[in-house]
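Annex B. Sample input.
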Amino acid sequence: MAWLQFIQTAIDYMEEHLLEDLDIEEVAKQAGSSSYHFQRTFALLTDCSVSEYLRRRRLSLAAKELSETNERIIDIAYKYGYDTPEAFSKAFRRQHDMTPTEARKFRGRQQFFERLVIQVTLKGAEPVKFNVVEKGKFNVIGMKRNYSLENGENLLEIPKLWNEVNSNGTIDKLCRFNNGHIKGVLGVCVDQGPDLQEGKIDYWIAVETTDGRGGEFQTLEIPASKWVVFEVKGPMPEAMQTTWKKIFSEWFPTSGYEHAGTPEMEVYPEDGSDTSEFYSEIWIPVK
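Annex B, continued. Sample output.
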């Protein structure tokens, strides 16, 4: 459970520095993880982004102060990171469905979010099916887009990219280069790391290839890794989302493995059929 304890250490760090302008890279460091992998894991375990958790917790504590102290509303707004009373009031109403003034007068029920403690329930009734494989470095060819992790932009925009490439013929072009070991279309997520743009990822739609060039497409080298390949079966995107959650909430905490921090992949069959028995895979590099 060491992996889970690292996540909790990062959460405790956020709580201890809740009134500060937190650097997500520093938070992730508490979990021994990159910014991307920490934020991804946090969202899968809690169904809430890191920024949303911080916002909820700060507004919860602000509501408590409004109810229990005589501090001025403007001072409380500044204390919890809002530059103007108007911005504070707007955010406060969105969460608590009342204004700060109404909260001070005890009107209505506030939406209070408690400090988070990660607990994992090991269900096991429907275990994830997986296989461990060793694979040397290989090349993929495809197109990439850059996405921010802030406010879940990547979660909203990546499905739009898939719709785009499925409708404009890009997938058909890519499949002509698919002559490597992995048969199918890949969704490859590359953490840019702290030395590049903080809070950004490169997302590739690609195929494995042995060819050096691909015309309009770019190439990316995937490092040699030990991979855990998880089976995903069922209609998209529900089956994929459910499996990701199971991996991080049930499999990783007891597996003895850690994420290697290199690119991870989803593998989809070329025909793209959307049926109840649709088969796809999740490839995660581990150490």
